[in-house]
Amino acid sequence: MGQILVRRTDLKTCFLETKFLYGQSSRQKQVRNTPVHNHACWQLEGMVKGYCSIKTASVSTDIESGQLLVIPPGFNHRFAYDNSESCFISLKFNLNIPAGYRAGSWQPQIISGPETVLCYEILMRALDKCSDENETVALISSIEHLTASIIEKAYFFSKKDMNDPIISRLKWLINKQPQHQPKVKELSRLLNCNRKYVAAHIRNETGMTIKEFIDSERAEIAAQTLAHSQNTIGEVACMLGFPDQYTFSRFFKKLKNVSPREFRKDLNLVKKTAANHGVSHKLVR
Q1: Could you confirm whether domain 161-271 is CATH 1.10.10.60?
Q2: How does residue 229 score in pLDDT terms, banded at 50, 70 and 90?
Q3: In angstroms, what CA-CA distances link 229 with 177, 225, 263?
Q4: What's the pLDDT at 15?
Q5: Comparing C-alpha atoms, which of 17, 11, 21 is closest to residue 97?
Q6: What's residue 252's pLDDT?
Q7: Measured between alpha carbons, how far is 284 from 273 in angstroms, rounded to an integer?
Q8: Where are the domains of the chain?
Q9: Which of 258, 46, 34 is nearest to 147 (CA)?
Q10: Which tens digit of pLDDT belongs to each residue from 84-100?
């Protein structure tokens, strides 16, 4: 039985839908300047080695090794690379932003994250070499998932939301032992907080009761596992601590408005359709 797939970010990444368009993976580039330009899509640049500068009408900012730069659509910019050969990652993508949601800032943002740059490098190199259609779709899905997490944190959530100690800790406790169905009293004790205080805080921040919040997190873990593993529905039910597949299916349908079987069937249909429309292409060199 495979290990359950748990989310590693503090925030859900189902808020945004990310569509991979184009990528270049850690290619060496000799010193040169690009002309001023902009894109209709979002752009992400990650420096693996060396550094470059992004220049706008009034500002020049250095991007060093291990840093990511996110550029919103329509923003005029040009790049100036250093004197040595630079290794970089470039990604272009579209976002389906929920209707009525206002982003905070649409300026380019630099994000320090050597681990994230390395993660992109590994994923995109694997994609470049991949010849299996199903594996290609899975790799693109991983890139899109990672990108959605980065954009959400950079543009759509305040620092208060990201650093909320109670919510972050609560999510970590739920994800740590997905096979264990935690009780509200137990979680309050582990949070070292009064149960009524935790309940009021969760209600104020999320609009849910603690029980609803726990169920929502566990349903998301189940959805990620159904989407990204080959485990049967019965095995997923066992991993999440449900007594049987029937009880798990009722729980999942209540939270996701679709049965686990239908969820996986619909997801496979989406992947197949995407592959048939050329999503499983190689990275452009």
Answers
A1: yes
A2: confident
A3: 18, 5, 13
A4: 62
A5: 17
A6: 94
A7: 21
A8: 17-157, 161-271
A9: 46
A10: 667 888 889 988 876 55
Non-local CB neighbours of 245 within 8 Å, separated by 6+ positions: 233, 234, 237
Q: What are phi and psi of 226, to 5 degrees?
A: -65, -35
The class (CATH top level) of 17-157 is mainly beta
Both tokens of 32, joined, read: 């040169």
CA 37 to centroid of chain Cα atoms: 27
Tell me the residue type at 77: H
Q: What is the pLDDT of residue 249?
A: 95
CB-neighbour burial class of residue 253 (10 A; exposed 0-12, middle 13-18, buried 19+): middle
Give the mean pLDDT of 66-82. 83
Q: What is the pTM of this model?
A: 0.52
pLDDT in tens, 195-206: 888 888 888 888
Average pLDDT of the residues of the chain:
77
CA–CA distance, 223 with 242 (Å, rounded to integer)? 15
The DSSP result for 52-121, as a single string, is: EEEE-SS-EEEE-TTEEEEE-TT--BEEEE-SS-EEEEEEEEEEEPPTTPPPS--S-EEEE-HHHHHHHH
Say what the pLDDT of residue 8 is.
Answer: 40
Contact between residue 144 and residue 195 where contact means Cβ atoms under 8 Å apart: no
The CA distance from 218 to 240, in Å, is 8
Beta bridge partners of 68: 46, 111
Confidence check: pLDDT of 159 > 70: no
Residue 98: how many other CB atoms lie within 10 Å: 10
Measure the CA angle with vertex 101, ends 148 and 144; round to 5°.
10
Same fold across 17-157 and 161-271: no
